[in-house]
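Researcher: Sit down with what I've pasted below and flag anything odd:
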Amino acid sequence: MAVRLLHEQDISIAAELSAEAGWNQTADDWRMLLRLNPENCFGIDAEGRLVSTATLSCYGRKLAWIGMVLTTRAYQRRGFARTLLLHAIARADQLGIESLKLDATDQGQPLYESLGFRVEQPVERWWRPPQAGGAGLQPANLLDHDMEAYKADRSELLRALTQHSKVQANADGFCLSRPGRRANYIGPCVSQSTEFVRTAIQACAHEESYWDLLPQNQSALALATELGFKPQRKLIRMVRGRDLRGREDWIYAIAGFELG
């Protein structure tokens, strides 16, 4: 059960693994993860084929995110995911990461708890069918709001996301949306203004759309309901190491379960 780094030639198989799980990530999402974290995307082969993955996205030393924990059905319940998680945790410790987070399903939560993760808060996916979109906004600086909201430097991630996202932004905040395998994905969205978010989401959500939000942000929850989104699934955000909480009342949409 040897762990190895993922490479460009693994993207098509990795995308098959996430599609088999019913996830929304595309080959472009995998390509971005590998480009941003070339030393932190891991896999295990069996019978000459990639069968299990996990990724570690680092935002400086303050925060890192574990994602894309996948094992093809034929090899599940054999310890592949646990092996990869232990490897990712060891890598985070080697890098001196202070706060390590992930978004867990109910099925995965006991495994993560056994590895030292604890519950932070729920995360919910909301969904809406296609509707008419609103007018867009002009791009502006994304970094100031994001640093305040997350207390970590995600500038490289934001620059990468803007390369294949629609950007709605002004002085009040920003909202990105990008193509997904199953539906348009809204996020990240960070703002001090509910009015800005309402306008931005309407401009982003003319297609069938997913919106992953923190329900502790009551304004995001109320706005999702107002705009006709419906709750679809719930995950649990978990943390290992130092607690790190920013301006979560500014976080209207996360960047993805695999990105935080």
Notes: The chain has two domains: 3-123, 124-234+242-253. Helices lie at 11-20, 27-36, 80-95, 109-114, 143-150, 155-162, 194-204, 218-226. The CA atoms of residues 13 and 50 lie 7 Å apart. The longest helix spans residues 80-95.
